[in-house]
Design brief:
The protein is an alpha+beta fold and about 290 residues long. About 20% of the residues lie in helices and about 30% in strands. The structure holds zinc ion. The site of zinc ion has 5 residues, from α4.
């Protein structure tokens, strides 16, 4: 899809499922189940939507999905259904892994960093051999000191090989990754979680990552149980969603199983509403 001087595409890396209670925190199931119904194991079915931003200065990929280093048992637990292969992750958009210049990872949880590396001849190597990977320094450091509650979401083997290959840029705060493509630290989900803000020719957009994972999370109080700082998340969401609605930004949801991008508005009851773009803007089949 054209976006100023940029070309934007969604790459749907996989489908997976997480416990609905954990996805919606203190929101009662009677409410969230109407928006994102759970399966018989109480899991909500979601996607890993990577955002490809092709700019005149280079190609940026936002997130890497879950990757392919999962046991049969783990795949069953997460209802994991791969839709791409790590050796050719951008096949759906006609590009090679070598074509990516920059990869942004919002935070290092396995459903964001799992596809950052792949196994070749028994060795883990960066999936995108020519890319610099932009990761927050604070997130990287936290992943090594996470306590029992936070630890289960981190697998250092997802990102250590990037450092060994000299492909990591540890960013300390907000940063312009490519002209018009910025990372902005939000916190909330993890202490150094970052979103991606992008603009070209007056068009503005944001990839919310796990601050607003699906269109069912657009009310600020609908914060995930997974968040490390849920009260902060509520304020961060009000701020970012408010700006996006008032300035008519394109908004992109990382785990939305339907059409994952569109525009926001604020209705007369002061609640956010999401209007998805048409399905023709995607180059992928949407699971219903
Ligand atoms: Zn996630």
């Amino acid at each position: 899809m054209k976006f100023g001087d940029f070309e934007l595409s969604i790459v749907r890396e996989c489908m997976f499922g997480l416990d609905g209670g954990a996805m919606f925190g203190v929101v009662p199931k009677t409410l969230w189940n109407k928006l994102l119904p759970a399966d018989d194991e109480n899991r909500c079915r979601m996607a890993c939507n990577l955002l490809l931003i092709e700019t005149p200065d280079g190609r940026v990929l936002v997130e890497t999905g879950m990757g392919d280093r999962w046991t049969e048992q783990e795949m069953q637990r997460y209802g994991h259904e791969p839709l791409t292969k790590t050796e050719h992750m951008l096949a759906d958009v006609g590009l090679k892994n070598e074509d990516i210049d920059a990869v942004i990872i919002s935070h290092l949880h396995f459903d964001h960093a799992g596809g950052a590396v792949r196994k070749v001849d028994g060795k883990l190597v960066p999936t995108f051999p020519n890319a610099k990977y932009y990761i927050q320094k604070g997130e990287w450091e936290f992943s090594y000191k996470a306590n029992a509650r936070a630890k289960a979401s981190y697998r250092p083997e997802d990102y250590e090989p990037l450092e060994a290959a000299g492909q990591v840029v540890l960013v300390d705060g907000d940063h312009e990754v490519m002209p018009g493509v910025f990372v902005r630290v939000t916190g909330g989900h993890t202490s150094h979680h970052q979103v991606v803000y992008f603009e070209s020719q007056g068009e503005k957009g944001v990839y919310f990552a796990d601050i607003v994972p699906t269109k069912s999370h657009i009310q600020p109080a609908w914060v995930m149980g997974y968040d490390h700082f849920p009260l902060a998340s509520c304020d961060i969401k009000s701020d970012w969603l408010g700006r996006a609605a008032r300035e008519n930004w394109l908004v992109v949801f990382d785990h939305e199983p339907g059409v994952p991008w569109g525009r926001l508005s604020i209705n007369e009851k002061k609640r956010f509403e999401f209007q998805a773009l048409s399905e023709d803007t995607l180059k992928l089949p949407i699971a219903r």
